[in-house]
Structure formats: C-alpha cells, structure tokens
C-alpha cells in the first residue's frame, strides 16, 4: 500500500467535506433557524451526495494503487460529523447515501467504490456506525459526555476492535495493510474533529459579539448614557409622567457562578431580545436601556396623568406589565443543558414617585437587592415610604454598630432540661457581644446606651435574625427553639407578616418548632394590632412564650393577648426561691396560671442543685441555667451524669 497516496486521498476527502460543512452549516446555521429541522434534513441529503463525490475524488487521487478500504471507511467520518456536530435529522440523508455507496455503487462503479469482501470488514464497519449512535444516545441522558469524549471513545474502541479482528492473521500482509489504513483513517479523523471544533468556536464567539452589539447598542442604551438619553427624550417629547421598569434574573450572582459564559450570554441575550419585542409591541415610545450588566430597563411614557394618578388605571398598566414579564421565556436548552431562571421586575413611576431617574433607579434597586424568597410577585411596585424606612433601618444598624460591636456578637445555646423526657427538650437561643452575655449585669451599661439612642427594637430584631441564622447553620430546624422577638415592632403597622414568614422560609425554619419569646415588662401601644398579628402567627404554627414573669414591671394583662404556651419565671425570683417565701408564692402563682391557660412553666437561672430540687418539688418540669449548662454549639442530648443527678 502506498502510504503517501493514501494520506493525500484522505486529506482530499476531508478537505471537501469540511469546506462544505463550513459554508452550509458551520458559519451559517443561524440563517436557517426558522426552518431548522427541514434545513438539516436537506443538508444531510446534500452532504451525502458530497460524500459520494468525495469518494470518487479519493479514488482518483490514489491513482492505480487504490485502497478501496478507505472508500468504505471515510464516509463514516461524515456520519459522525452529522450526528455529533449537526443533528440526528442530518444523519438521515448522510446514512442513506452512505448505504447506497456501500451496497450498490461497488457493483455499478467498481473503479471508484470498494465493496466489503470479508466478515471482519463488515463487523468493523457496522461497529463504526453503531458506536457513534450508542454514545450519542448516552450523551442525551448523561451530560458529561461531550463531543470530544464521544470522538475519543469512538477512536479508541475502533482501534481496539481492529486489533482484535486482525489478531488471528496478524502476520499476514492483509493485516498489515488493514492496520495501516486504520491508523491513517483514525489520524485523519482527529484532524477533522479539530477543524470542526475550531469552526464551532469561531461561530459561537462571533454570535456572542453580534448579540452584545445588538442588545447593547441597537436595542438597549448602554449604562454610560442611558439616563441622559432618556432625559433628552423626555424633554423633546415633553413627557411629564411615565413608568420606570427594571427587570432582572433573580439571584443573578448565583446564576453567574453556576453557568459558563456561553450559557450566560445565551440566556441574557434571549431575554433581552424577547422582552424588547414584547414590550415594544405593547407600549409605543418605550425607551430601552441597561443601567448595569445585571439589569434590563425600559422607560414607558404615560399617555396622560390619569394613568399614574388613578389607582385603577395604574393597576391595569401594572397587570399588563406583569403579564409581559411573566410571558418572557425563562427556560433554555443550551448544549444539552436545561437552564431555568426566575425573571423579576421592579416598577416605579416617573413624575409621581420622583422626577429624578437616578432616584427611581435606587428605588428599583432596593427591590432587586432583596432575596429571591422575599420577591413573591413577578413585578413589585415600588413604595417610596418603604424604601425610606429601609434606609432608616440601615442607618440605625450603622449607629447600633457604633454602640455595640455587632460583628463580634454570637449566639449561645442554652438547653432546657425536661423532667418528663429526662433529656434536653428545647434550645433557648441567647446572645453575647464581645464575650459578654446580653442579659448579664456587665452588659447593662451598653443596654442603657442602646435604649437612649432608641435602638432597642432594631437590636432585638438583629439578635432574632442572628438566632434564626444559627438554627439554619447548625441544622437544628427540627428542635424546639426559643427566639426572643421585639414586641414593639410586632404591634406596629410596619410589621409585614408575609415578609416575616418568607424570611423564615428562606432559612428553612420549621414553624411548628419555633417559639417566639416576648418580654412581658415592655409596654404595648396598639394591643388590638398585636393580638391580631400574634393570632396570625399562631395560625401558621408558631408558638409563643413570655419572659420576666414575677418581675415588678410585668404587665399580666398582656397574657390573654400573648396566649403563651410557655412562661419563663424571672431569674432573680428563681435564685432565692428557697429563701424568700414571696418568691415561692410567685412560682406557685405561675404554675396555677400555666395550668389554666394550658402552658408550661420554665425556671431560669437554675444554678444549683438545691434550687433545682426546690422547684422540682413545687411541680416545675422545665429548667435552664448554669446547672443545666450552655455553649456556643447546640446540645440536643443531656450528658449521662447530668441525667443521673437530676433524676436521682
């Protein structure tokens, strides 16, 4: 066999088919996207005819010393190319033409087409087609198999198969020629794969560049001069009112980390183009812009003042926008991967909420910065008062951080021992700041400062959120946990139960295991609203508890409002329960009240066994304090020695 002529023949065939692939599909597939399947079927038939023509060129290139085995093997390359780089529809025409060239043409045109003359060759050819189909089907279900993996596995399996088939006659000239042909064929195959991959990379890169130009410049004003251009439009058309809409992929930062650049560009480009077409179709004069790379924006001029001032008209516009945003495709299939995203939007009103586009953007961005779980609706209408309240809360937290070092705060888990279970039945989540427990005398000065600055509410809520996070972080969602919460905020109009529950949901809190604890010494302004909110929380399965029972400032008239399942007796009462008769009487009264309202009494500051024994004899079953223990990590099971001490 002439090695040089065989190599030239292979390269000639590869050059013809590669050129045709590049022109008809590799760099032009986007032109036929609307007739994709039909085009691929026709293209497969065309490539099949080209394969027949290439085989004739191959035979002519080899001259008198023809290697007919190559005329059988090289068309298999085209089958692999069609299946792995185009689609199964294209393989129909290629496979049909290959079968004609394999079984019919050797008898009609024997000078150009070789025929299968041995069982080994037939088995080898059949395996060459079959292995590609098998790997393609596996790749549909197992995404880790890409084109490179498939081509390599095909090459290795065919090389091994060829060696096995030729093993019985390994020393014959026929075997040597077969193996040499096999090596040339497979080697040329890798050159073909390399070329096809380069063409695909060029196409994808060009498409990305084209899409960036299209949606950043033709459709959307870029972020550098977006507001300036919108203001020019407002001034030239004398627009007084309008709708400032920004829409975005929820949790974009997480999405960006999870997917490749190619997938990200495909998703954002698709959203940009589809949203542009749908909004443009429904709103005349809309101006599209990109305030930043994460956000799409559109300014929609209002036809009249009524559209923004009348609640019914604004509601109709809002519903229309919500339908458009909801209809934008959010599921994409890219390179065998299925990607799903959530598209959310924020809407503010120019001329009503503010005349400053920068301010409107800040309003909308405050919505965008919220967690995905907090954005219940697809489109959120901005409330400037809520935005200002949020800014005030941020300022208060910064002020609070100057009074106490919030960065150095950490939860303390104080287990509550249950005599019935003879084990830890509950976790009370306390806190310490810079190593000092917040309910100790050492923290009293800082507590007074917090109160003087009017930051008690924000401090209590901060600690509550920290406690919720510690439940999630330590994976104790199924353990009963006491969390202190601010009763002043709960009784205010600002309290949003849906936002509160969605925050708990975001940390996967089991509501039936959560017990909100309230300080009974704090005065309440709006008792009716407080009772309503507590009832709403209880309907969701959340339990309540009251603290500081027995304190001089305790307001016992609040007990019917709190409807507590647990009553915490004030620590100073417990400390001297066996020494002062009045303290013992307070404990007895707590037990009587608890029985009437079907609640349980919790004894705090149980620091010695003597106190524990006295309380046990009085009928208390739940205990916490130094005797029981505490720690920065939750303890769900009581140590054996503690159990022995408390149950002897």
From TrEMBL:
<dbReference type="InterPro" id="IPR050706">
    <property type="entry name" value="Cyclic-di-GMP_PDE-like"/>
</dbReference>
<feature type="transmembrane region" description="Helical">
    <location>
        <begin position="92"/>
        <end position="112"/>
    </location>
</feature>
<feature type="transmembrane region" description="Helical">
    <location>
        <begin position="124"/>
        <end position="142"/>
    </location>
</feature>
<dbReference type="GO" id="GO:0071111">
    <property type="term" value="F:cyclic-guanylate-specific phosphodiesterase activity"/>
</dbReference>
<keyword id="KW-0472">Membrane</keyword>
<protein>
    <recommendedName>
        <fullName>EAL domain-containing protein</fullName>
    </recommendedName>
</protein>
<keyword id="KW-0812">Transmembrane</keyword>
<keyword id="KW-1133">Transmembrane helix</keyword>
<dbReference type="Pfam" id="PF00563">
    <property type="entry name" value="EAL"/>
</dbReference>
<feature type="transmembrane region" description="Helical">
    <location>
        <begin position="68"/>
        <end position="86"/>
    </location>
</feature>
<dbReference type="InterPro" id="IPR035919">
    <property type="entry name" value="EAL_sf"/>
</dbReference>
<feature type="transmembrane region" description="Helical">
    <location>
        <begin position="148"/>
        <end position="166"/>
    </location>
</feature>
<feature type="transmembrane region" description="Helical">
    <location>
        <begin position="178"/>
        <end position="196"/>
    </location>
</feature>
<dbReference type="InterPro" id="IPR001633">
    <property type="entry name" value="EAL_dom"/>
</dbReference>
<feature type="domain" description="EAL">
    <location>
        <begin position="393"/>
        <end position="645"/>
    </location>
</feature>
<feature type="transmembrane region" description="Helical">
    <location>
        <begin position="37"/>
        <end position="61"/>
    </location>
</feature>
């Amino acid at each position: 066999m002439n090695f040089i002529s065989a190599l030239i023949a292979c390269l000639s065939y590869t050059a013809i088919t590669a050129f045709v692939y590049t022109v008809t599909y590799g760099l032009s597939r986007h032109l036929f996207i609307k007739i994709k399947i039909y085009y691929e079927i026709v293209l497969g038939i065309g490539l099949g005819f080209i394969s027949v023509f290439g085989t004739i060129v191959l035979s002519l290139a080899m001259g008198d010393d023809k290697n007919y085995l190559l005329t059988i093997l090289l068309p298999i390359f085209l089958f692999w190319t069609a299946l792995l780089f185009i689609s199964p529809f294209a393989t129909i025409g290629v496979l049909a033409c290959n079968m004609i060239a394999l079984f019919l043409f050797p008898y009609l045109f024997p000078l150009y087409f070789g025929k299968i003359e041995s069982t080994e060759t037939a088995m080898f050819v059949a395996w060459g087609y079959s292995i590609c189909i098998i790997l393609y089907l596996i790749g549909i279900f197992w995404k880790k198999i890409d084109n490179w993996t498939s081509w390599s596995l095909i090459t290795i399996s065919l090389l091994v198969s060829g060696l096995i088939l030729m093993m019985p006659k390994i020393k014959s000239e026929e075997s040597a020629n077969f193996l040499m042909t096999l090596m040339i064929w497979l080697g040329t195959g890798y050159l073909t794969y390399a070329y096809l991959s380069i063409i695909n990379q060029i196409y994808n890169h060009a498409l990305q560049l084209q899409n960036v130009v299209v949606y950043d410049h033709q459709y959307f004003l870029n972020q550098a001069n977006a507001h300036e251009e919108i203001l020019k439009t407002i001034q030239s058309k004398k627009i007084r009112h309008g709708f400032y809409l920004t829409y975005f992929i929820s949790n974009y930062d997480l999405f960006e980390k999870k997917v490749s650049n190619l997938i990200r560009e495909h998703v954002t480009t698709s959203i940009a183009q589809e949203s542009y077409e749908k909004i443009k179709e429904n709103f005349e004069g809309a101006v599209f812009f990109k305030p930043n790379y994460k956000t799409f924006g559109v300014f929609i001029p209002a036809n009249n003042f009524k559209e923004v001032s009348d609640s019914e008209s604004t509601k109709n516009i809002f519903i229309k926008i919500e339908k458009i945003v909801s209809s934008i495709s959010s599921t994409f299939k890219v390179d065998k991967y299925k990607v799903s995203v959530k598209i959310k939007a924020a809407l503010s009103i120019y001329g009503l909420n503010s005349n400053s586009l920068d301010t409107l953007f800040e309003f909308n961005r405050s919505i965008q910065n919220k967690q995905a779980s907090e954005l219940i609706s697809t489109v959120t209408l901005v409330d400037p008062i809520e935005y200002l309240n949020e800014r005030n809360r941020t300022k208060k937290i910064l002020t609070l951080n100057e009074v106490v070092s919030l960065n150095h705060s950490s939860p303390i888990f104080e287990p509550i021992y249950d005599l019935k279970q003879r084990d830890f039945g509950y976790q009370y989540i306390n806190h310490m700041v810079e190593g000092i427990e917040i309910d100790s005398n050492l923290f009293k000065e800082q507590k007074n400062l917090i109160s003087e600055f009017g930051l008690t509410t924000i401090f209590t809520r901060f600690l509550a959120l920290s406690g919720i996070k510690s439940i999630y972080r330590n994976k104790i969602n199924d353990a009963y946990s006491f969390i202190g919460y601010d009763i002043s905020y709960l009784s205010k109009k600002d309290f949003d139960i849906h936002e509160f529950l969605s925050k708990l949901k975001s940390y996967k809190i089991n509501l039936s295991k959560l017990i909100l604890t309230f300080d009974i010494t704090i005065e309440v302004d709006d008792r009716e609203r407080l009772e309503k909110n507590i009832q709403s929380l209880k309907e969701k399965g959340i339990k309540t508890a009251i603290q500081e029972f027995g304190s001089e400032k305790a307001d016992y008239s609040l007990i019917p409002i709190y409807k507590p399942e647990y009553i915490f007796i004030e620590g100073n009462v417990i400390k001297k329960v066996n020494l002062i008769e009045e303290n013992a009487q307070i404990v007895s009264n707590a037990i009587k009240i608890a029985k009437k309202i079907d609640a349980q009494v919790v004894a705090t500051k149980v620091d010695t066994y003597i106190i524990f024994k006295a309380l046990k004899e009085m009928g208390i079953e739940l205990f916490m304090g130094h005797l029981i223990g505490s720690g920065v990590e939750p303890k769900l099971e009581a140590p054996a020695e503690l159990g022995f001490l408390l149950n002897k």
